[in-house]
Structure formats: C-alpha cells, structure tokens
Specification:
Structural class: mainly alpha
Shape: globular
Number of strands: 4
Number of helices: 17
Distance between the termini: 44 Å
Strand content: under 5%
Radius of gyration: 31 Å
Low-confidence stretches: 337-363, 367-418, 464-481
Mean pLDDT: 77
Order of helices and strands: HHHHHHHHHHHHHEHEEEHHH
Length: about 475
C-alpha cells in the first residue's frame, strides 16, 4: 500500500514539474499587465480557468476514472490555459510595441540591480510558504488524524490568505509606480488605503473562520476526530489571520519601496528562529500537538506584523522616491550628473550667450483642452524651435531645455563604453543557463539511474539470513509413500 502511494506521489510530482514554465510565464504576464494598471483580463482569465478546471476534473476523475493522476493533469492544463489566454490578450491589445523595445545586447547588462530586488522578494514568499509545508510534514509524524487536521487548516488559511494577498500586490504596484513618478503623497495615500483595507479584510476573514468553525471541517473530511480538531484550532487561526493580513500588506508596501531585504529578514527570524522552534516544542513535548504548532506560528506572525508596521512607519519616502526614479531611468544619480558635466565640459561646446529659460508651471486647466497641449503631454517633448523644447514631466512641471545641450549629452552618453565586454557578459549570463542544464541533467540521472540500481539490487539480493525449513509432505506425497 505504501509503495503504491509513493508511486502515485511520484507520478503527480512529474506532472507538476511540467507546470513551472506555464506558471512562471503567467506570473510575468500578470505583473506586466498590473504595472500598466490593467486588471480586468486577469480576473476574467481566473474565472474562466476555474470553470475549465472543474470541468476537466469531472471528466478525468469521474468519466475517464484516472484517479489522482487525472487531477494533476487537470491542474497542469489549467495553468497552460491561463498562460495562453493572457498571452493572446497581450498580443491582441498590442501592448508590446509601446512598452518593450525588443531583444538587444543591453539585455545582458545591469542584472544585479534587478537580482538585488528579486532574490529578497523570492525569499519573502518562499520562507513563508515553506513553513506551512514543514508544519504539515511534522504533523504527519503524530498520526493520520493530526496530519488531516493540519492539511485542512492549511487549506482554509490559504484561501483566506489570498484576499489580502491580492491587496498587497496592488499596494506594491501603486506604491512603486507613485514613487517612480515622484508622487510621494500619492505613495503615502496608497499605503494608508491598503492598510485600512487589510484591517477590514482580516477582521472579515477572522469572523468567517470563527462563526463556521464547526462546519468547515466537513468540506475536507467526514472523520469526526478531524472535524473536532479543526473546530478546536480554528479560533486560534482566526487571530492568526488578523496579524497575517497586516503582515502581508506591510510586506507589499515594503516591496513597493524596494525594502525586500527587511521583509525577507523579518520572515527568516520570525518563522525559523522564533515560530518553528516554539511550535515544535509545543507539538512534541506537550499534549497540544497541532494546536501547539499554531501557537508558535501565531507568536511569529504577531512579531512579524509589529516589526513590519514599524518598518513602514519609518520609511524615508523622499529618499525612496529618488531611488525609484533612478531605477526607472527618469533621474540620474549624482555621480552620473557629475560625469555628464565633465563630458560636456570636455566637448568644447559652450552655451555662452544663450540665456537659460526658467522652469514654469504647467498650463492652466482652461488651456489644457487644446490639441497642442495634448500632443505635448503625449509625446513628453515637443519642439518649439531649433534651439528650445518643452519637456513635460510626470509630476506636472514644464521645463524649457536647450536642444543643443541635450544632443551633446545624449551623444556622449551613447558613446560611453559598457561596463563589461561582450565575452564576459556572455560568460556570466551563460553560467546561469549552464547551471539550469546541470540541474536538469542531475534530475534525469536520479530519475532513471537510481531506480535501475534499486531493481538490480533487489534481484541479486540473496536471502542469507533466512533459514529454510522443510515443508511437511502433502496429501498426494503421503499417498505415494
């Protein structure tokens, strides 16, 4: 029986390994559209995918009778449906030509600023995800009832977690976009609104879990012991949801402020230094069992939410706005400005005799309806004559700039040599590809070679310690004697 279960788990794992490509592309497409404040297509895709997922499960489980493997296949097909649907929408809408310049050799440069934000963001999600998987594995040591109860609670908390998680994703996009545009007050307002939404959603989730604690267990199991254990633990989980909502929204705001390192460090210390050790002690050294693990998780999420709220309150919004503009390429750093000034000074091009035009405010609202102003806003830079132009910034300031000076600066910026040679860039970026190939090759070796050695060892094994006793003669043998 255990061998059959292991085989089923292995088949499901192989099928799920084919989901990663579709899942990653779907996440990229979702974030790509969210950064353009396009949300409705993702919602419609999710609704359609849920309907198709239910239909595929019904066909594979009840009509074709494929068992758990069929459920895994339906799950994989559902992810590919989501990915292909959003890809078709992006192609149909024509978003790519206006937002992406295509593949160039510059794509191999400046990976570290991106990875410096991506790695802590990944750790924030993975550290929180892994802790629940660890708790489920530890619950399996206690027994089947405890593991079933832990799995049920994990599913319920995951469902309630998705609601504030959606708000956190919106907070990340809104805060990051506002900071990149230099709109500090808008970023603060987005953070405050997200936090208020988190409080209301957390209270709503907690009330649902407490009021339906005696019923929710039946959605996953008919075992009375499992249902009673779930009903006993859910009130604690409702309090857990209150602080979890604050924690996830605070984490979204910190990601929008490029403070992923603080969030990752908070998750690491909160879960793996405080929560899991306390939970393991209460689970195995007391009679609390699964309830003890959730006590440890409750303590950890409480401390995380407090620490993250303090971190959000201490954010230097002006500094983060300047950093976001530098990352977005809309503002140069001080070192880049000094380099540009030195380059311009060495170019033997002077602007003596040309009077600098002062900055002026944007046009009055009653003059913004004319076509010239609309074209200026649309094109960002509109030429007045051969020497002057009007640059309209995202924060509403109109600046008179000299075309001659701008051309000189741009020419010298383009002539600036890259940080690394082409060979070194190809070598460094190729290492990532080679690492992926090596990991894939190791997986294939483990998949095919290890079972072969196990089968050979089973066939060549000699029962040395087994003593063979002579069997008693059968009735036919006795008749012959």
């Amino acid at each position: 029986m255990e061998r059959k279960r292991c085989h089923i788990c292995f088949c499901c794992f192989v099928i799920f390994s084919l989901i990663f490509q579709a899942f990653f592309l779907f996440q990229l497409e979702t974030k790509y559209l969210m950064n353009q404040k396009i949300i409705i297509p993702q919602v419609l895709t999710a609704v359609m995918s849920n309907v198709i997922h239910a239909l595929l499960n019904y066909i594979l489980l009840y009509i074709l009778d494929t068992g758990i493997t069929g459920a895994a296949i339906a799950h994989a097909l559902n992810f590919y449906f989501q990915m292909i649907t959003l890809m078709i929408y992006i192609w149909w809408r024509g978003c790519v030509p206006s937002t992406w310049g295509g593949w160039t050799m510059k794509c191999l440069e400046d990976w570290w600023p991106f990875m410096r934000l991506a790695i802590p963001s990944t750790m924030m999600i993975c550290l929180e995800w892994w802790v629940y998987e660890i708790s489920t594995i530890l619950a399996g040591i206690l027994g089947k009832v405890e593991q079933a109860a832990q799995s049920t609670i994990y599913q319920l908390t995951t469902i309630s977690y998705t609601i504030p998680m959606g708000v956190a994703m919106a907070a990340t996009v809104q805060v990051g976009s506002a900071l990149g545009a230099g709109q500090i007050e808008q970023a603060k307002l987005s953070a405050k609104v997200s936090m208020i939404c988190a409080i209301f959603l957390a209270v709503f989730n907690a009330l649902i879990l407490v009021s339906l604690k005696d019923v929710l267990g039946y959605l996953f199991s008919n075992n009375q012991k499992v249902v009673k254990m779930v009903a006993f633990i859910l009130p604690l989980c409702s309090g857990f949801q209150l602080f979890d909502g604050l924690s996830v929204i605070s984490g979204g705001i910190l990601r929008g402020c490029a403070l992923q390192k603080i969030g990752a460090l908070c998750c690491l210390i909160g879960y793996y230094v405080i929560g899991i050790p306390i939970g393991i002690c209460l689970m195995f050294l007391t009679h609390l069992h699964v309830f003890g693990m959730w006590v440890g998780l409750f303590i950890s999420i409480f401390m995380q939410s407090v620490f993250m709220l303090i971190s959000v309150a201490m954010v230097n919004w002006e500094s983060k706005a300047e950093q976001a503009q530098v990352n977005a390429g809309t503002k140069c750093t001080q070192n880049q400005d000094e380099e540009d000034e030195e380059t311009f000074a060495d170019s033997n091009c002077t602007l003596s005799g040309v009077e600098e035009q002062p900055k002026v405010t944007a046009l009055p609202e009653d003059q913004r309806d004319n076509q010239i102003y609309k074209e200026m806003v649309k094109n960002r830079v509109s030429t007045i004559d051969d020497t002057l132009a009007v640059e309209i910034h995202s924060y509403g300031v109109v600046e008179m700039v000299h075309i001659e000076k701008r051309k000189v600066e741009n020419e010298h910026r383009e002539e600036r040599p890259p940080n690394r040679s082409l060979k070194r860039l190809l070598l460094y970026r190729g290492l990532f590809f080679m690492a992926a190939v090596v990991i894939f090759a190791l997986g294939m070796v483990i998949r095919f070679v290890v079972p072969m050695f196990l089968s050979i060892s089973e066939h060549t094994k000699q029962p040395a310690n087994v003593t063979v006793t002579p069997s008693s003669p059968s009735r036919n043998e006795l008749a012959l004697i």
